[in-house]
Amino acid sequence: METSDMALEHEPQRPLKDTNPMSWSQEPRGKGLNPELGSGHLGRRSRESPGRCPRRRCGGGRVKSRGETARAPVSGAGPGERRGRRFAAPALLRNVRWSAARGGASYRKGLQETAALLFQRNLKTKAENNMECNSVVDGNVKEVTSKKVIKFNPPLYKQRYQFVKNLVEQHQPKKVADLGCGDVCLLAILKYQKCIEELVGVDINEGRLKWSGSRLSPCVGDHLDPRELDLAITLYHGSVLEKDCRLLGFDLAACIELIEHFDSEDLAKFPEVVFGYMSPAMIVISTPNSEFNSLFPCAVFRDSDHKFEWSRVQFQTWALDVASRYSYSVEFTGVGEPPTGAEDVGYCTQIGVFRKKAEAAGLADLEHHGEHVYEVVYTTSYPSLQQINYRRRVVIYLVYREVSRLRQKYQVGLRQHELEPEFVAPGNQTGKFTPDLPVPVLTEDDKAMEMAPQPFCIEDKFYVPLQRIIAYPRLGHLCGNVEKLREFLGDVIELNCDGSAVKVDLNDCSDF
Q: Which residues sit opposite 384 in a β-bridge?
């Protein structure tokens, strides 16, 4: 719903009737200026001196710049009242100046029309100021007559998505479905969770899915730094009230602000499909709390498409009945805390977290054959270290980095050794710097590195043993053993004769 200010902004500027009983054309020159323009003159030309405006005739005020006029407050005075306050209407001011440039009757007519339009605008502004401000709930603007604005920080929809994200981080599901995914905001957040291997979104609005699918595509950074696990994302066009075997076996299904859009017939089908057929290990359902609506000036519901909005008792009664029928347990919580003094209304959004009972999970028979009802709108997969080409690329990069670091450290040590005799401190016969610093505590990884073979140099060649390279935790995780590391390096990085160490030039850094 647009505000009256927005409506006024787009209203065509048409001439209005003059509300001043005295005709401006009959007033003496310099006396009929619109008081809304203040005490200054707007560039009116004198008949005696067409090129300039005499100060003694016009009051001596200067013309304010466009920026000063835009910052000036809007006066509530009409054309017949005298208040020396500027008006915030740069476009109208330009019209007046254009009329003034023409001079004569056009100038007076322009001022008359401008004054009448400003008078009507000021009347509307004063009427709008008598109204209370607006309240926004999930982007829906509603008029408020006497209630204070309630603002959620962060916004309520972000709190709902953060709630689901926290559940994912806590329970580490691999397969997650967003039923009624809309603009795929939740999927765009969950794709960064390392534990997830499959993300699915289902929505009835096909055009919205096609438009939003690009938000889920992998970017350049995903190729430079691949995920540890594979990730496949699929968007389906279809109704969540239809059974599709591709939605079986999921660890988590999110139904965020979905059920309130169902009529009574669809609401009766929903548990049978989601809880009975899909039967995910965990289900999250959020819906508006109608008790919180008393703090908003809502006419009926928060959204025109809502078929109902439940109180806490109504939602909990429905949820407990569904959980009992399909062998789930349920916990109730919410997001959007009420303001101080209104805690009795509960959260703005109420949430039920359903978990399948252990005995029901053991008896579940996941048959992945059946009818494919949904239409695939968008699908993509992310690069990961499970794919051999990406794993090899990362291993080579890490080996390059570690060999370069060790070679640079070795070169610095040589230079310090050459310069030590020149900086012998008095009383220090060895010529070595002995700092009075605490000995660092070695971690398990540090101890493993200390036990690994050290790099060495033969003439102008620098060698790093593969046993030392594999001792780095991440390289050990990616390769597992020296044989696999040697296989990954292949003919990309030069090895010594027996293939036990990486071989590079000591003083030539162009090889990397």
A: 227
Q: Please tell me whether the overall predicted TM-score, pTM, comes out greater than 0.70 for this model.
A: no
Q: At what angle do helices 90-102 and 105-129 cross, to 10 degrees?
A: 170
DSSP structure class, residue 241: T
- Comparing 415 with 119, the larger pLDDT belongs to 415
Helix (H, G, I), strand (E, B) or coil at 229: coil
Residue 202's nearest CA partner among 372, 36, 16 is 372
Q: Buried b / exposed e across 199-209, counting CB within 10 Å, b at 16+?
A: bbbbbeeeebb
Q: Quick: pLDDT tens for 29-55.
A: 444 434 343 333 334 344 444 444 444
460 Cβ neighbours under 8 A, 6+ residues apart: 505, 506, 507
Quickly count: other Cβ atoms within 10 Å of residue 166's Cβ: 10
Residue 274: phi, psi to the nearest 5? -75, -50
Tell me the pairing of strands 252-256 and 282-288: parallel
- For the segment 464-478, the average pLDDT, to the nearest whole number, is 91
Which regions of 204-311 does DSSP assign to beta strands (E)?
Answer: 231-237, 252-256, 282-288
Nearest-CA neighbor of 292 among 308, 309, 278?
Answer: 309
Number of other residues whose CB lies within 10 A of the CB of residue 15 = 12
Torsion of CA 252, 257, 259, 261, to 10 degrees: -140
- Do residues 35 and 77 touch, judged by C-beta distance below 8 A? yes
Whether 277 contacts 243, CB under 8 Å: yes
What residues does 256 pair with on adjacent strands? 286
Angle at the Cα of 282 (from 277 to 284), degrees rounded to 5?
Answer: 100
Separation between Cα atoms, residue 184 and residue 395, nearest integer Å:
34
- Could you report the per-residue pLDDT of 387-422, keeping only the tens digit for each? 999 999 999 999 999 999 999 888 888 887 776 655
b/e burial code for range 460-493 (CB count within 10 A of at least 16 → b): eebbbbbebbbbbeebeebbeeeeebbebbeeeb
CA–CA separation, 262 vs 340, rounded Å? Answer: 33
278 to each of 247, 274, 319, how far by Cα in Å? 6, 5, 17
User: Residue 473 and residue 449: Cα distance in Å, rounded?
Assistant: 10
Strands 349-356 and 282-288: antiparallel
Amino acid type, 175:
K
Looking at residue 64, its amino acid is K
Residue 83 per-residue DSSP state: -
Strand partners, 137: 140
DSSP state of 387: S
Enumerate the β-bridge partners of residue 378.
Answer: 235
